[in-house]
User: Fold this.
Amino acid sequence: MEKLLDKNEKEDAEEVFDGISDIAECTKAGKKPPRSKGYRILINGKPFVSKKARITGREVLILGGKTPPENFTLRVKLAGHKPERVGLDEVVDLRHPGVEKFKSLPKDQTEG
Assistant:
């Protein structure tokens, strides 16, 4: 997940888009999502809006109505890559170019 998490990247002085950026649409257009008031993401094919650009796996699951989050696994799909597992406390930068969507699945009784 290092490619999603650039801890040294600082918020620059770019303008904030006064609306909601659609993450999947930005990816299709090959653009990095702008700083925005909100970010539309797809979780299991349904749209949800996060007010934060950096969101944990736990927050994605809760936003998608998957509670308690400990009972679910989460994967993020990046353009041109296989889905990658996201830990509950792992941070995903929604402004990272290539973020397409999230998929959650219930954990098996034998998992976790």
Remarks:
- Residues 30 and 97 are 7 Å apart (CA to CA).
- The chain has a mean pLDDT of 88.
- DSSP finds two helices and eight strands in the chain.
